[in-house]
């Protein structure tokens, strides 16, 4: 049984009390720090069933499995080498990138987001980069609305997504502990310059009649575009009236058909494709699940839109043994980045299965762990850490900034439990938002074990960290930014919509 908050008067006591990851918690060493566990036999042997037909794919799979078996076969899990990873991630921010990165000129917002968010996961105060983030991203705002990936480039929804996430993170850290007027000034510098009107009109141009979105005007259609668009709309404080549109100008409600479009992208395997009739892929699965959870509580939004039984079957097949990590597609190799794209799906599916959890409605039955968190942690710590810093796809592959961020995000998903709380206090502005459900998520260091129909069992899954120093930061399971940053940004929009005197605010500071 799980209890999030103290029980209401007259309720029966539960077996354990969860401590939340974003509050000052009591620390219980015997709960988190366990004696070293033996490597399970599952990680030390090749799969029980091997394909007799030798192909390039099957040979690569065996080679990868053997390599990983050597990595995990050690008596102690290596610690998370935070200091070395921090040094790796600080290098592009403090020293700049080499000429070899010119090919990523259209990914400037992404490079900022990957490095800054990964540093926040490792416990670094990235508020010092807020001014630089603003000065770097301002020139990327396109005159017609939205953001390009580089200076003078056409707007792209993924570039807008990465830009807004970066600003949400740096402004959050830069404003921690400041008096109210100074905190508002930080957010004014970070967000008041964004032309929300033009951005909204640009998003209408990439919305499709079938409910989907294109990544840019004339670009490809996929669910990633829909997810990125919804996150941008949610974080920039648009409300129902903004999204309804002006019928006199032929504008339809911007969210019309979105959930139905996502539903049409579920494949015969149970996974989610980029668009209808496309191959199931872990990255697109996360985009659809997270987007749906922005539009409703996870139980209702996922169970009413998707075939959860088939989805769970497909997700289960993505975690491999002996590797312990995830693949993104059927018959593909394990890859560290799917620690987020598939591991993040499990956080949302578990929340849907366990329904609403809050102080007033404690969960009486819990499904427990639907995936092996310990196996993923073992894969990340033994196989994904580069010897000179940074995190990577798998042994033998060089670390990079993309994998560093998404491997650490997956580690956070494994080390924390995320749940939906419908009694969270929300501002008047947020109650008018179609994305208000995205602001009702909480986290806990305690991961529940399953309970039976008779209420027996329960307690907490142990041994997810050997030392507290190996734990990474708590992230919002939908936005992939530090949990709490989304709320601070919304409080700014509440002030901005109510007062909006940015010039007066700036002159005072």
């Amino acid at each position: 049984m799980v209890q999030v908050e103290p029980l209401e008067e007259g309720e029966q006591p539960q077996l354990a009390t969860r401590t939340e990851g974003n509050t000052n918690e009591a620390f219980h060493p015997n709960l988190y720090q366990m004696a070293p566990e033996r490597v399970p036999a599952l990680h030390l042997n090749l799969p029980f069933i091997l394909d007799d037909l030798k192909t390039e794919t099957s040979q690569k799979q065996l080679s990868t499995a053997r390599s990983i078996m050597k990595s995990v076969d050690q008596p102690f899990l290596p610690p998370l080498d935070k200091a070395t990873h921090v040094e790796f991630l600080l290098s592009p921010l403090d020293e700049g990138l080499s000429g070899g990165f010119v090919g990523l000129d259209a990914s400037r917002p992404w490079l900022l987001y990957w490095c800054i968010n990964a540093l926040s996961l490792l416990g670094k105060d990235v508020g010092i980069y807020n001014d630089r983030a603003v000065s770097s991203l301002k020139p990327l705002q396109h005159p017609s609305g939205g953001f390009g990936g580089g200076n003078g480039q056409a707007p792209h929804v993924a570039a807008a997504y990465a830009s807004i996430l970066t600003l949400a993170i740096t402004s959050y850290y830069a404003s921690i502990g400041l008096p109210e007027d100074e905190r508002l000034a930080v957010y004014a510098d970070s967000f008041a310059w964004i032309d929300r009107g033009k951005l909204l009109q640009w998003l209408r141009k990439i919305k499709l009649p079938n409910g989907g979105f294109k990544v840019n005007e004339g670009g490809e259609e996929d669910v990633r575009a829909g997810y990125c668009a919804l996150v941008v709309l949610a974080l920039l404080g648009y409300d129902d009236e903004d999204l309804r549109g002006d019928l006199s100008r032929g504008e339809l409600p911007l969210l019309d058909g979105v959930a139905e479009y996502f539903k049409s992208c579920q494949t015969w395997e149970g996974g989610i494709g980029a668009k209808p009739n496309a191959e199931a892929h872990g990255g697109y699965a996360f985009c659809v699940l997270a987007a749906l959870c922005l539009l409703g509580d996870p139980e209702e939004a996922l169970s009413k839109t998707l075939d959860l039984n088939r989805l769970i079957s497909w997700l289960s097949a993505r975690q491999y043994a002996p590797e312990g990590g995830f693949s993104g597609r059927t018959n593909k190799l394990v890859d560290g980045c799917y620690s987020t794209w598939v591991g993040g799906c499990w956080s949302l599916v578990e929340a849907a299965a366990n329904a609403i959890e809050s102080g007033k409605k404690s969960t009486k039955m819990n499904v427990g762990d639907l995936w092996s968190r310990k196996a993923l942690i073992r894969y990340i710590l033994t196989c994904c850490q580069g010897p000179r810093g940074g995190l990577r796809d798998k042994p033998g592959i060089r670390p990079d900034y993309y994998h560093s961020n998404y491997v650490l995000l997956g580690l956070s998903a494994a080390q924390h439990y995320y749940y939906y709380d419908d009694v969270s206090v929300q501002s008047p502005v947020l109650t008018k938002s179609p994305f208000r459900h995205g602001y009702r998520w909480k986290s806990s260091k305690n991961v529940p074990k399953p309970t039976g129909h008779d209420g027996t069992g329960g307690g907490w899954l142990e041994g997810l960290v050997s030392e507290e120093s190996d734990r990474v930061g708590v992230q919002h399971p939908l936005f992939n930014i530090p949990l709490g940053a989304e709320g601070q940004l919304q409080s700014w929009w509440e002030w901005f919509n109510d007062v909006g005197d940015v010039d007066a605010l700036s002159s005072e500071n």
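The two ends are 50 Å apart (CA to CA). Residues 157-175 form the longest helix (19 residues).
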